[in-house]
Each structure stands twice: as C-alpha cells, then as structure tokens.
Amino acid sequence: MSAAARDPRRRTARPPFGARLAQAMAERGPVCVGIDPHPGLLEAWGLADSPVGLRDFSLRVVEAVSGRVAAVKPQAAFFERHGSAGVAVLEEVLQALRDAGTLSILDVKRGDIGSTMGAYAQAYLGEDAPAAADAITVSPYLGYGSLAPALELACATGRGVFVLALTSNPEGAEVQHARSSDARSVAAGVVEAVARSNAAADKAGYLGSVGLVVGATTGGAVRDLGIDLASANAALLAPGVGTQGAGAAELRSVFSGVRHRVLASTSRAVLEAGPQVSGLRRAAGQTREAVAAALAW
Length: 297
Ligand SMILES: O=c1ccn([C@@H]2O[C@H](COP(=O)(O)O)[C@@H](O)[C@H]2O)c(=O)[nH]1
Hints:
TIM Barrel; 8-stranded parallel β-barrel
C-alpha cells in the first residue's frame, strides 16, 4: 500500500455522515438496532459463549435488519470480552454492514488526551482501518477539545461521531447535570460545543456529522437543565428504548420539539426475539413502527 493510501486522513468521496444518516432515516425510519451479544442472549439463542457463537449471533442480526433500519450499533465491549478473536468478529460484522449498505455506529465511548485520541480515531474512523465504522460514540469528559482528532478525521473520511451528552444510566447525572459558576450544566456545555462543530453544515443546510447521545430515559433533564437540543444541528442517538424502560411517551416528552432528529436505539428488546432471523426482523419492524408513530415520523 502506498504512503498516501495509508494516510488515515486521506480525503474520500464518501458524502458526510450527517447527510448519509439523514437519508437513511428518511428511507428507513428513526431506529437503530444494537448488536449486544450478552452471554445470556447467546445462551438463549442456543449458541456458545465463544467467538464462533458471537459471529453467528451478530451475522444473524445483520441479515435480519440490514436495509430495514437506519443504522446498526454493535457494542464493542461484547466483542472485546472474547479477546482478539472477538475483535476479528467485530471487524467482520462491520464489513458485513458495509456490504449490506447499512450504516454502522460502533459504540466504543472513546475519550482520551488528544494525542491518544488521534490513535483511537485512526482505529475507527481512518479511511482503510479494519475496524472502521460509519460513526462511533465518544466521551467528552476529558474536555471537548480532546476530541478534536476524532472530529477532524471523521470530517476527512465522511464519517461521524456521537458525543455523550445525557446518558441513559441514572449515574450519569452526577457528572452531566453538574453546573459551573455561570450555572450552565456540563451537558448544556457539550451541546453548545457540538452546535459549534456543526455550524458549517448548518449554514450549508445539512445535518451535522457530530451527533449527540441523549438517553430516552432522561426524563425532564433536557428541560430542567435548559438545554437547547435544536440548536445543535445534530442527530440525537437515543438509547434506553425497550429494556431500560423508555417507550413512546418518554420519546415524545424528552424530545419534544426535536423529534425529527431522533435516532432511537434499542438492543435487547429486539435481540430477545431471536434466534430466528424472521423473529428478529419482526421485532425490529414493530419497534420501527412504534417509534415512528411516537415521533410522528
Ligand atoms: O447512554 C447510553 C449510551 C449507550 N448505551 C448503550 O446502548 C445499548 C443499550 O442496550 P439495551 O439492551 O437497549 O438496553 C448498550 O450497548 C449500552 O451500552 C446506553 O444504554 N446508554
């Protein structure tokens, strides 16, 4: 491979992630299905808790939902727990999604000092990286500026990032709801930073490629913290739908005024309908219909 081809910043003809996601949501609705191969789910599907079982599980999900939902979100942790063989399966799953023309959002929640963040960015957002996804989740809690290498590489390769703002777990509030001396909450600061990152796309009339993670379980936090989600020109990845308790009412209430930006994410609630591809497909379709109705899609 030439040095130019190895350069992870090599510009690509791929359209920006924000535009690709907006198109996928317009065509396939506002749902993302997670691939979370929990040991209990592998057992329930009659599969071994091994890289072989992991591969069978994940590729069945890809077969069931590709082309039927806007995006698929593999959870890296469930692959990494199988060591290097599990990571090889993750790379295969990401390739299968590419082959199927379905957007991948790799849930890795990376965040580190800028120089190390550059290496993470090359691993997941580099042009020819084996584990490249269309987008990844990142954590801004080492400072939003530390994410710059990921934002820059995503922009160069037509990929995206989703920045954790208000996570779906109850423990997130102790950090994300904290207020600084000017009374602004940490989460509101993250949303403002994302709005700045997406400003050029906004001006050009496109959805930005820097999304936000806002859990569907976060109740009145968006309102109580005075967060203006609409200002961010960002897709809103909303985990927490299904097993964590959020449904139609929560989606309507948390995302009032920004419903058209929401990409609702659900994993176990669909995966429990396996192991048959037909069952998974039916569950994903029902979720898509229910979420679309809730968000008046
Ligand atoms: O705030 C967040 C961010 C990410 N997640 C991830 O989404 C899925 C949720 O799985 P379910 O089975 O639908 O509960 C999982 O991979 C989480 O790590 C989240 O839940 N909340």
